[in-house]
Amino acid sequence: MARINNLLALVCHQRPDRTLSIAGALLPLCSRCTGIYAGFLLSIAWQWFSGGRRRTLLPPRPALEISAALGILGGLEVFLPGWGIMADGNPARLAAGLLTGTALALFLLPVFNRFFYQTGPRKERPPRPTSYAFPFLGAALLFRLGSWNHPAAGRLLAVFSILGLILIYLLINLLLASMLPETGPAGSKRRAGRRLLAALLFLGLEILFLRFNPLRLLAG
Questions:
Q1: Is the model's pLDDT at 20 over the cut of 60?
Q2: Exposure string for 109-144, b = 16+ CB within 10 A, e = fewer
């Protein structure tokens, strides 16, 4: 567990005063990071199982605007307590992270699909705008889970957040690899292998940068 915490420390400050404690145990990530990555995982899972695993269309305009507004609101939580608009605390950080992560996944997966699969234009039936409420309802359930003082709640949030962290780095790096110029037919195994290798290279460089962050070394 110590090695996992050391790896997670590359992407999260893990400050005890900003980390949820459930049943006497601190979660592996701070409250905001827990919310971001758990919400991201939940939102990706909803899109996957609702038929959107290869969808390239962004959410319909009403859902797009509401999701963007909620995501921006989650991001502004960093500043709202200082402006006296919102109470500070770990529950607020968890809620803000859940909003941000859930909204981010609704935008990222269609963009990822468009570049990764490169199937060209195809007819798609967009889901009803009201269906985009489901991932946010799921995020609300995760928020309630954070107030349940039981070891099972802590383990579930920890697993969700770590899996979400892995998933978001995987998708972003595969997306970057898919943007590189390539030759060969789309969908070929060789082309997919090159993308995977490029994504792993990007991930390795990111880990090295986070591990030997020159800005953090200067600040220290």
A1: yes
A2: bbebbbebeeeeeeeeeebebeebeebbebbeebbe
Counting the structural domains of the chain, the total is 1
Give the residue numbers spanning the domain of 62: 2-119+127-219
**DSSP letters of 49-62?**
IIIITT--SPPPHH
| Phi, psi (rounded to 5 degrees) for 88 | -85, 155
Round to whole Å and give the CA distance between 149 and 23. Answer: 5
Q: What is residue 217's predicted lDDT score, i.e. its pLDDT?
A: 46
- pLDDT tens-digit map of 182-218: 665 655 677 778 888 888 888 888 878 877 765 554 4
The amino acid at residue 20 is: L
Q: Is the pLDDT of residue 41 over 90?
A: yes
The closest of 163, 164, 30 to 101, measured between CA atoms, is 164
The overall average pLDDT reported for the chain is: 83
Query: Which position has the token pair 């968890």?
Result: 94
